[in-house]
């Protein structure tokens, strides 16, 4: 599609990313090809509810268009939104979403500075997302993860913030979402607006979409407001998106609680075939699954059938005449529905600024769309454990490498990364040759594209790490290899290990102590004879708000 610089911007927002729709600059946000822009402008519905070319391509073909945006653009949008004049006499509730896989969250420490003394926030609710991707390494693992979030909030200087709660959810599978809605309605009610904040790729737009189809929004909102565009590419949302929050009256809360009680008594066998199919789909994607329902369904009226007797009367020699189909008009809120509404806003992701996450952004910008889809985990991560002796090397694709240099005994290395990323074990003597030969090829897989591809990719540079083991069933630390994932290291008590970890040049890896899942090495099968690998073992999925039958 071609741009037309003579046409001014529309003044209307893309319903997928929030950017202003325009056809004058193909490299700017909100671009719609000029021909399509004109045809939409001349239609009955106009541009209202339309999506830009970038959102259309992300949704329908998974392609991500590069945009010419200043580095601070997303942060400026968020900062300006938070500094709006007070509505309804009080500041907004800030719902900060973080990716638990990325702990320690790099943006959380920046939150106090971003808010500043001039942001009149009335409350802060911190939500850890993507817990469905992590297996339960021990009983009570969710409580331990939640405590990690609480500690991260304190370390980030949020001790004095009006912290409402800390919760764990999966915006993708629905786990914890009904509890989050109940918490919002009990503590915040409909007192003011709510802003979804967080780093890029933390899942804000996915959460926005699931809340849009929950008891948290007005019953007619899903028919009026389009879903936000969701993709694995960072920075998909470019401006504010919003839906109106329902007023949780006593009657509504009572009806909602009755629905939740009734659903909690059901077993999987009592679900409809469609519900079972969708539930099984979610189980394949995550370890933790939740069912998000709606109590306040909109009652749609009976459609009126236009009766045209002339169109129904025809002779035996004539064909029936069909009236042309009318274009369905887009629904809109009435003035009275939204004049005093409180809104839930989805905001652009905040760019991660420390050295570790700058690498994540650089790597994702270097990777092709196929490579991004391989690197970012979208399904439950199956831990892969290997037992290494000193002098052995572990490759995680061509994105990271760990050398076991010194130690008295063997140690266990558990890889937590996308199931699509290959792990290769080698000896120290052969490791350099293997990287030179197979980086960019099928064995190491990412990056892909051979020698030409690797010429533009940063070389791996080393960093030495010293650890002391605490036992054969408990990891001492995670070695986080940027956005590729991490390796949990488990060693005999008091055993000292000297490791050398590699990540692409210009980056810094993270040694996470204590590890996120300290007992992850115990989730494994039997040793595969003649190799350093153990058979993988995937724990079963857990569905909340559903009565168990005792079956596995």
Output the CATH topology of the largest domain: Rossmann fold
- General shape: globular
- Distinct helical segment count: 16
Q: Largest sheet, if any? A: 6 strands, mixed
Keywords: Coiled coil
Coiled coil: 250-277
GO molecular function, one term: GTP binding
Domain NOA1/YqeH-like C-terminal: 413-513
Entry summary:
It holds the Pfam family YqeH-like_C. The chain has 552 residues and is α/β, with parallel strands linked by helices.
How would you explain this protein's 3D organization?
Residues 413-513 form the NOA1/YqeH-like C-terminal domain. It comes from Ciccaba nigrolineata. Residues 250-277 form a coiled coil. The structure is a single chain. The protein is of the alpha/beta class and 552 residues long. It has 3 domains: 1-68, no CATH class; 71-263 and 335-346, Rossmann fold (3-Layer(aba) Sandwich), CATH 3.40.50.300; 357-538, no CATH class. 26% of the residues lie in helices and 18% in strands. It contains 16 helices and 18 strands. The protein has helices at residues 34-42, 53-61, 73-82, 111-115, 141-155, 177-187, 204-212, 221-224, 250-264, 273-285, 309-312, 335-338, 355-366, 369-375, 428-438, 450-455, and strands spanning 93-99, 123-129, 163-168, 194-198, 241-244, 288-289, 343-346, 384-388, 392-396, 400-406, 411-416, 423-427, 460-468, 475-480, 486-490, 496-504, 510-512, 542-543. A 6-stranded mixed β-sheet has the order 3-2-1-4-7-5, with helices on both faces. A hairpin with a 3-residue loop joins strand 9 and strand 10 (400-406). The chain is globular.
